[in-house]
Specification:
The protein is mostly beta strands and 223 residues long. Helix content is 13%, strand content 44%. It has one domain: Lipoprotein localisation LolA/LolB/LppX (outer membrane lipoprotein receptor (LolB), chain A), CATH 2.50.20.10. The chain is built from 3 helices and 12 strands. A hairpin with a 2-residue loop joins strand 2 (66-77) and strand 3. It is globular and about 50 Å long.
């Protein structure tokens, strides 16, 4: 289960969770104050030319017992991204996606279809909320001298395996710093940004998978 959720983060993170294209009209109303916060997050993120962030993932079961933790790195540059987590790597050069299973020494190659509604790391920091959720602004929380605005999102599509997502936004920087996903079966998934750089130099070649660097790798072309 842990690797399945990790991969969801990688190819979709920070997601069978979302699917664009639905409309919230007539279903309910969202809190306009929450939308202001999310819009500010989206606009701030769009100003970054590159992003490199270290994140952590923790899974708890319904009893609150930790089922596993992992750490990883996500890099973004325009429509390109690369996500690394223990045992897995995803490369995307803006048109092709390589999903590399380190243990199996196997990489699956597919074409990025921007019209399919797939979730990229970029979308998770920008406009992921606009059509698929109702959202409200919860009370702020303070930790380690920082203030976080808390947005509670509920999916419009009630067939989703989760019923609530909590997003914490650094009030000063307008950056999403953590996300909690609550599944109907009681499991909870905690994603947290531990550090972030928006000035890192990220060469384009770092977003493509080069078989020459991985001797014996099995390539599965799904295009």
């Amino acid at each position: 289960m842990f690797s399945r959720i990790s991969l969801l983060f990688l190819v979709s993170v920070f997601s069978s969770l979302l699917s664009f294209g639905q409309s919230s009209k007539g279903i309910g109303k969202s809190d306009p104050e929450a939308k202001k916060v999310l819009d500010a997050v989206s606009e701030k993120f769009k100003t970054f030319k590159t992003v490199k962030a270290n994140f952590s993932l923790k899974i708890e079961n319904a009893a609150g017992k930790v089922q596993g933790t992992k750490t990883g790195t996500v890099m973004m540059k325009g429509v390109k991204y690369r996500v690394s987590i223990t045992g897995q790597e995803i490369f995307c050069d803006g048109s092709t996606i390589w999903s590399f299973d380190v243990g199996a020494n196997e990489v699956q190659v597919s074409t990025l279809d921007n019209s399919s509604g797939s979730i990229t790391p970029q979308k998770l920091f920008t406009n992921f909320y606009d059509k698929d959720f109702l959202f409200m602004l919860n009370p702020e929380v303070k930790r380690a001298g920082k203030t976080y605005q808390v947005i509670e999102l509920t999916p419009i599509d009630k067939t989703k395996p989760f019923f609530k997502v909590l997003v914490e936004v650094d009030k000063a920087t307008k950056i999403i710093m953590s996300t909690q996903v609550f599944e109907k079966n009681g499991n909870r998934y905690f994603y947290a940004i531990n550090s972030m750089s928006t000035t890192a130099s990220l060469p384009d070649e770092g977003f493509s998978f080069s078989p020459k660097k991985y001797p014996g790798v099995e390539l599965i072309d799904l295009r």
